[in-house]
């Protein structure tokens, strides 16, 4: 750093070395729009009757790939990425094209949601992605689609993409889906269920993971006029209401905001996260509660505030024992904070993150050890024992969260070099500039 002179990701070098701060960070930051909300809202808008206006949409690889996929299926989408606005002309519950080939690249939400989406079409659809995407299992979703009368085939070993869907419309209205690998399988089916002929009775089996994302899905379905009746957390009934167009505002991304909250924690600084509060639909907002357990002071704005915010004040940190299943996208961020805590930090119940952009348990363990930490890897998590840190050239495995999380270590420890910094474009293209804006007065 500094990165303010860099006008695009194409200007970034192959690697960057983080310069430690000289004093605690003080500042305010507003994270970009939520990727998870954006990619759910655009599915509902595409299937709706009428034209939806979506504001605050995230501009990133994952959201652009989703919009590319929708356009490839014949949906009419006008995107003004500079203004973070999307105008989506809904199809009234139909898939416009009967044939399409979609490159989902490294976007898991695009692969899972569009696989479910095309099942209500009539025709043949092929979805493929990167080498890593071809290693990420999707068989649980395909099995559910087969139960619904759709022909679904995965070409890679272990029921991994590329995926071919041949459909003449959904024939059944009841299905069970295994939810141990990813909550996105159930979310994908639920998002298209209001446009199925008889709706869908959906039963979630196995160990539930990332359950706040399921609640997010339900909330967004209802925001666009659908209904989602819960008999319990495992049994959903979604009637065939269809969707109606909406003017929809995307709230800031709580996962992205976690990096700035963690920056306050590791530097003993104070950072205010704008646009987020207790009423956020994103489960990752509870990362702030984890920081509080580690010793930070967290102040939430009034629940009645029209401009919600959260302020994190860093203090002496202590290790904790924490189940992070519900906030698993922030595991690597918490691991970075744990390096500066007194005593070990134990992260549990996140076996499913081995199937993310990289194996986020084994590869995180390797990079923390490279930094000098003592780390015990478990099947479903890891234990981090702080130790004197040393300079390290961090491998990011083309994983945006690895790059952003471990960059925070460099705010306190000299010689932390991040390789392939441009991988952050997947969810937060402006990350390096935003981080520099926050810390520049502390150097």
CATH superfamily grouping of the largest domain: Enolpyruvate transferase domain
Q: What percent strand? A: 15-25%
- Major β-sheet profile: 4 strands, mixed
The average pLDDT is 95
**Quick one: CATH class of the largest domain?**
Alpha Beta
Question: How large is the count of helical segments?
Answer: 12
Q: What is the CA-based Rg, rounded? A: 21 Å
- Quick one: how many beta strands? 23
The CATH topology of the largest domain comes to UDP-n-acetylglucosamine1-carboxyvinyl-transferase, Chain
Between the first and last Cα atoms, what is the distance in angstroms?
A: 11 Å
Overall 3D geometry? Answer: globular
Which spans of ≥5 residues are poorly predicted at pLDDT below 50?
1-8
Number of domains: 2
Characteristic key phrases:
443 residues; alpha/beta; UDP-n-acetylglucosamine1-carboxyvinyl-transferase, Chain; 2 domains; four-stranded mixed sheet; 12 helices; 23 strands; 28% helix; globular; disordered N terminus
Short characterization:
The protein is built from twelve helices and 23 strands. By secondary structure, the chain is α/β, with parallel strands linked by helices.
Could you characterize the architecture of this molecule?
This protein has 443 residues and is an alpha/beta fold. It folds into two domains: 9-31 and 253-442, Enolpyruvate transferase domain (UDP-n-acetylglucosamine1-carboxyvinyl-transferase, Chain, Alpha-beta prism), CATH 3.65.10.10; 35-249, Enolpyruvate transferase domain (UDP-n-acetylglucosamine1-carboxyvinyl-transferase, Chain), CATH 3.65.10. Helix content is 28%, strand content 25%. The protein has helices at 35-47, 61-72, 108-118, 139-147, 184-192, 211-223, 254-267, 287-293, 331-338, 362-370, 400-407, 431-439, and strands spanning 15-17, 26-29, 51-55, 76-80, 85-89, 99-103, 122-128, 151-156, 160-168, 174-178, 200-205, 229-232, 235-238, 247-249, 270-274, 297-300, 309-313, 321-323, 345-348, 374-378, 381-385, 392-394, 416-419. Strand 20 and strand 21 (381-385) form a beta hairpin.
């Amino acid at each position: 750093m500094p990165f303010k002179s860099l006008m695009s990701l194409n200007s970034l070098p192959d690697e960057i070395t983080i310069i430690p701060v000289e004093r605690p960070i003080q500042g305010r930051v507003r994270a970009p729009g939520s990727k998870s909300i954006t990619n759910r809202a655009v599915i509902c808008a595409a299937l709706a009757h009428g034209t939806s206006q979506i504001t605050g949409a995230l501009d990133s690889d994952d959201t652009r790939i989703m919009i590319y996929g929708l356009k490839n299926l014949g949906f009419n989408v006008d995107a003004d990425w500079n203004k973070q606005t999307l105008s989506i002309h809904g199809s009234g519950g139909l898939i416009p094209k009967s044939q399409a080939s979609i490159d989902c690249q490294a976007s898991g939400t695009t692969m899972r949601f569009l696989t479910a989406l095309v099942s209500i079409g009539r025709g043949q659809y092929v979805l493929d992605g990167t080498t890593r995407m071809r290693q990420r299992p999707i068989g649980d979703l395909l099995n559910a689609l087969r139960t619904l009368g759709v022909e679904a085939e995965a070409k890679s070993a272990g029921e991994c993409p590329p995926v071919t869907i041949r459909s003449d419309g959904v024939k059944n209205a009841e299905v069970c889906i295994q939810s141990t690998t990813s909550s996105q399988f159930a979310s994908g089916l639920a998002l298209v269920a209001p446009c199925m002929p008889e709706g869908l009775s959906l039963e979630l089996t196995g160990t539930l993971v990332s359950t706040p994302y399921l609640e997010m899905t339900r909330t967004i379905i209802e925001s666009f006029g659908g209904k989602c009746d819960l008999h319990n957390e495992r049994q959903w009934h979604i009637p065939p209401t269809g969707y109606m167009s909406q003017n929809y505002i995307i709230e800031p991304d709580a996962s992205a905001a976690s990096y700035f909250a963690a920056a306050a924690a590791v530097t003993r600084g104070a950072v205010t996260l704008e646009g987020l509060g207790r009423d956020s639909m994103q489960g990752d907002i509870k990362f702030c509660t984890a920081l509080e357990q580690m010793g930070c002071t967290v102040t939430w704005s009034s629940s009645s505030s029209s401009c919600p915010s959260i302020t994190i004040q860093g203090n002496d940190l202590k290790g904790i024992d924490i189940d992070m299943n519900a906030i698993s996208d922030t595991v690597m961020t918490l691991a970075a904070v744990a390096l500066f805590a007194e005593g070990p930090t134990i992260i549990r119940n996140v076996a499913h993150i081995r199937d993310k952009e990289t194996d986020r348990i084994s590869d995180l363990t390797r990079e923390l050890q490279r930094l000098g930490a003592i780390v015990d890897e478990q099947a479903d998590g890891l234990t981090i024992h702080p130790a004197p840190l040393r300079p390290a050239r961090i491998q990011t495995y083309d994983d945006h969260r690895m790059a952003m999380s471990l960059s925070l270590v460099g705010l306190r420890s000299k010689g932390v070099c991040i390789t392939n910094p441009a991988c952050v474009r997947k969810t937060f293209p402006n990350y390096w500039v935003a981080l520099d804006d926050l810390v520049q007065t502390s150097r």
